[in-house]
Amino acid sequence: MADLNLKSLFVVTVGILALSGCSSLQPTAELSEVSMLVHERTGETIVWDPTLSPPKDINTEIQSILSKTLTMKSAVRIALLNNSGLRAAYAELGIGRADLVQAGLVHNPLFEAAVKFPQGDHQLNLDLGITLELLDILFVPLKREIADSELNAKKAEVAGFVIGLIADVRDAFVSLQAAQQIENLFEQAVTATAASSASAMALYEAGNINQLTFDTERYFHEETQLARREGNIRTLEAREQLNTLLGLNQATQWTLSLRLPSPSRFEANDDIERLALDASLELTAARAKLLALGATHRIKNTTALIPVVEAGGVAERNEREWEAGPSFAVALPILDWGTARRAKSRAEIVRAQENYIGLQIKIVAVAKIAHARLEKEWHKVSFYQKTALPLQFRILDQTLQQYNAMQIGIFELLSAKRKQIAAGQAYIYALRDFWMAQHAVDEIRAGRLPSVQPFETFGSPMVSAGTVQGGH
Length: 472
Known about the structure:
The chain is of the alpha+beta class. The protein has one domain (2-446): Up-down Bundle (Outer membrane efflux proteins (OEP)). The chain has twelve helices and four strands, in the order αααααββαααααββαα. Strands 1-2-3-4 form a four-stranded antiparallel beta sheet. Strand 1 (110-116) and strand 2 form a beta hairpin.
């Protein structure tokens, strides 16, 4: 009978472990959900198996994309295929899936054995025991509920990371376009000032202009060259930033379209705050974490007074006879009544609730400011397109005519040239800032707060008309 009891206990234990360990460890379903969510909100498709290294066909696709002029969409495609941070984010899904499987398991039974050496010729006495934590078994459903909520939070966070990466790539792309366009602007300016400086030197050597006029022309040329060098550095910085997001090394060769597109229209959206709240993946993750905290609190509240309850069986052999029976162990609430654990659990829930409320307020504020900034950048672009650039062109043309007619001096002419260059530079920055503001609004609509908050400034100040060295 004792042997039968031990065998029965062993069979029950193994059965529990087998039934609780049947879940898959592969986060295939979770990755599919994230992919669908990202596609619905951005139109982009993610393709990745977090269990494998990048397969050859992915590398082939990347090389095929890089062999052509890079567009914003193709740059996003490379980032979704090749960004190491994104692969690390996908690994979070594997961690969450493993935690969910682990939550369905119970701790291994504890087996104990003791050998007693009696005096004389008596046989050895054996004590055998096996125990399981009863509370561990009883709380399996709640632990799975916690892990499932945390996995849902991870899915929202990973989807948000993908959406954020897409926005970052788009921002980096237009930043590089702007840097290249400004670099090209100063290349043209240097060519023009070099010719003007050479003409001034010839006139100076012939005695037709004085030292002041010659030095002024030369200074303007040197100033423009310095601005070009700074533009070269800005282009390098912007290129490396995009390289990093695409997961490419410095030696990788690629080109992208030079000019920033001009926006055709601005679409006002007075309901942006509600859309931001409804779409927010941060709120989705926060709600899931609150559910996990609620289930955790139920466990802590139940086990605060008696955290350990064990049951099992023992068998003892005295001489040649076996004695077997059930065993039971419980932690006595004498020194620790669990008051602190319960209080901590309640405080964690309150903290999460307040953070959730604060996040809602922040999302509304960020959405409102982002929309206002987009409208501001639209008006700035329109100003430069319709007013500033045409006026500066006419001003320079009229100034040149008056200079040739000897009605004004070199200082007025160079000032007009500086203002035209500054207006062109400011227009490029305005285009860049408009598209970055548009990307921020798109990111909010897709469910993620921009990595650069509207409370911070990513735009350029108005470029001074007295200098050709603008930017940041």
